[in-house]
Amino acid sequence: MTTVEHAASKQPAPAQPTQPVRRPAGFRPSPTPRSTEDPAPSAAAETTVTPAVEPATRAVTIVPLAGAVEATTAAATPGSGPEATTVIGPAAPDRSATPAPASAPGPGPANAAPATADATVVVPLRGQGAAVTAVSAPTIATTSVEPAAGGATVRTPAAAAGCPVTGHGRSGGHPVAPGVPDERRPKAVDPAAAEEFLRQVYAETEPELPLRDRLRQVRSEIDRRGVYTHTAHELVFGTRIAWRNSARCIGRLYWQSLQVRDLRHLHDPADVAQESVGHLRAATRGGRIRSTITVFAPDAPARPGPRIRNDQLVRYAGHRNPDGSVVGDPSQVEFTDRVVGMGWPRSQPPGRFDVLPLLITGADGRSRLFDVPPDAVHEVRLRHPEHPWFARLGLRWHSVPAISNMPLEIGGVVYPAAPFNGWYLDTEIGARNLADPDRYDLLPEIAKRLGLDTRSVRTMWKDRAMVELVRAVTYSFDADGVTMADHHTESERFLRHLEKEEAAGRSCPADWSWIVPPMSGSQTPVFHRYYDEPDPDLRPAFLEPHRI
Q1: pLDDT at 182 (0 to 100)
Q2: At what angle do helices 461-479 and 443-450 cross, to 10 degrees?
Q3: Fewer CB within a 10 Å sphere, N or C end of the chain?
Q4: The one catalytic residue among 243, 255, 344, 423
């Protein structure tokens, strides 16, 4: 994943939690994957710090909140260091209610009394720049209201107990699969790791509290609780250094621009799912992708943090046919079978680009499913600048590569759910995801359409087909105004990052096999040199991914 950021604009969009997850009219609680004929979501206008003025709107809540949720806003301010992000504390929830329509009687959020099975919760929608509010209504049954012919309203029965979005997972979810290490008993933080991190914070920045006093605070907290709480400054610094330390990332030049969404108060899987969708919305910005990380509750000896089992927030399902062939992404067959076994319905017929639900594990070790609303998944339909037939292949790819299953460790504290994204490199989609034999394996089809001789690899048909596939990806993202880096420019930027790190007296570990692009490697400057070996003990860092 490429994680290079745009130059700061005059009015940067705030990296903040978005509104509670909602769906457009007619979208059922049960996740129904889109067909290849569905139109891609339109790019929304860029959000600025000034709240947009929108007409009053009402919508049906499809995601009941699991207990009280506090709204926290992380506002971005101009700057390049860790101080560039200001974390604003929990906001008082707005409990003003909008009356429910007569077709679906039931209490509004203001008087969250127990609801009947067909109750409908109606909440006012606000502009993207407005303060986020969340309503505590753990017992409200959810009903999807769909428009019917003639303007009538049809009420669908509330989802069964279990997952509050999909209804899958009775009794609160499913236990962790056999063989997976017990993650419900995290270890206490090593005081030495905490001290090492704090000394790095004070060596590179200038916090107000003296180091000696901060060390005393942290040691005392670890003695009492087995863990300590990072300040907002420490969290922002730690997340950015973890990116700077990522040996496999070619896009580290702008590590200081990473936007941090501080949601450490959220533990419940429903809340994590809601704000994971919020992460996609905050990072997408109508195509002007922003490097973003959302940090959820950390592990603690008395209470483990949540875990997102998906390797990315947006992944396409892999459906295995009886003959062994796969429709969709072969790398996701195992995960797809897992969520189908938990109750997620496959599309009929199965499609090549069915968005998978989120699988999130809570503190009790049980996993629950949550679908990703279609309007939160920004996708680009692929076409070629010279070959009209390419568009008829029906290919597309999502815009935000948000890694979600790699725990983040900062100063001995582990945040098991900390999804983060940069933006795509052209070869990542065109030369790997769509081209690898164990992924979509499209090179034979592209070569056939191009009229290439595929009888021997010596005709270089694979190379020629790959170039045209990457061209199509780059052209399509550019035409749609979606941020994407190319492998030539990104290679030059990485060497600039390397020079800056060396000038600062820091080592810059890099994994050559990941830094060198998978296409035209020798034509990029990163190919012709060696790098410092990756250090597995370097911290802060993103750790090995969770297993499903």
Answers
A1: 58
A2: 90
A3: C
A4: 423
Contact at 8 Å (CB) between 41 and 286? no
One DSSP character per residue, 1-25 reads -B---PPPPSSPPP----SPP---T
Q: Which of 275, 379, 409, 428 is catalytic?
A: 428
User: Could you tell me whether strands 259-262 and 292-295 are parallel, antiparallel, or unpaired per DSSP bridges?
Assistant: parallel
User: Contact 144/120 with Cβ under 8 angstroms?
Assistant: no
Among this protein's residues, is 249 annotated catalytic?
A: yes
Active-site residue, from 23, 34, 244, 252:
252
Residue 423 appears among annotated catalytic residues: yes
59: nearest Cα among 15, 93, 109: 109
pTM for the predicted model, two decimal places: 0.71
Rounded-to-integer distance, Cα 163 and Cα 268, Å: 11
The predicted pLDDT at position 138 comes to 31
Q: Dihedral sign, CA of 419, 425, 430, 432?
A: negative
**426-472 tens-digit pLDDT:** 999 999 999 999 999 999 999 999 999 999 999 999 999 999 999 99
Contacts of residue 428, Cβ cutoff 8 Å, sequence gap at least 6? 1, 2, 401
| Catalytic choice (5, 70, 249, 379) | 249
CB 99 within 8 A of CB 106: no
For the stretch 262-278, what's the b/e string if a residue is b when 16 or more beta carbons lie within 10 angstroms of its beta carbon? bbbebbbbbbbbbbbbb
Residue 363 has pLDDT above 70, yes or no: yes
Other Cβ atoms within 10 Å of 183 Cβ, number: 18
| Residue 41 region by backbone torsions, left for phi larger than 0, else alpha for psi between -120 and 50, else beta | beta
